[in-house]
Amino acid sequence: MSRPLKITGICLAAGFSRRMGAPKLRQLLPDGTPLGASAVRAMAGAGLQRLLVVVREDDDCSWLPGASGEAAGKTAVEVVLCRDASLGMAHSLRCGLAAAADGAGGEPPDAVLVVLADQPLVDAGLLARLADVLHGHPELDWAACGLQGVPMPPAIMRGSMFSALARLEGDRGARQLFAGAGFRGEMLADVAESSLYDVDTPEDLEMIAQTWLNG
């Protein structure tokens, strides 16, 4: 039996909330918790070796679970400051990857699991499914959620992709690598669309609230 993969989670939380008009990760969900805390909690319960949350330098992280003494889950949260956050999502991912590459005890992980902090309906079960795909298929470089045939975050990427991820630029994330011929992957095609909702506008937040209450 092969050993479990050592997976580091990278939660991308360094956006500027321009379309929201206010810091979106602090907006409250129907249960009264900050929007950004939900994805972090899901990651903390997904059996990860480490959990890195990439934020801007001016973020006080008051939205993070644990900021008020509440435990996030089984995996401790490590905050990574991204000085290049204004250059786009790829640079936030690169900051997280650089921190992950240091590894626990100096040893890099086998894979990184990337989640957007503004995806509050992601749950630990979905994240564990992505990890299981790579564990069961060592020939694959990545696994992602799929929506109408398009790979979406959350996504997990094996160490074979780290060099390519570290060269990404601008506001596009890892998805641009999935379409290339250089890496092999698989999409989970049976994921509910609502699980992948992200929040960019007040209207998105209202839709999330309604889905939350109806779920």
Question: What would you say this structure looks like, in words?
Answer:
- The chain has helices at 35-44, 89-102, 124-136, 162-165, 175-178, 202-214; strands spanning 7-13, 50-56, 77-82, 111-116, 142-147, 150-158, 185-188.
- It is of the alpha/beta class and 215 residues long.
- The protein has a single domain (7-214), classed as Spore Coat Polysaccharide Biosynthesis Protein SpsA, Chain A.
- Strands 3-2-1-4-6-5-7 form a seven-stranded mixed sheet, with helices on both faces.
- The chain is globular.
Strand count: 7
User: How many structural domains does the protein architecture include?
Assistant: 1
Distance between the termini: 38 Å
Question: In angstroms, what is the radius of gyration?
Answer: 16 Å
Unreliable stretches (pLDDT < 50, length at least 5) are none
Strand content: 15-25%
The percentage helix is 25-40%
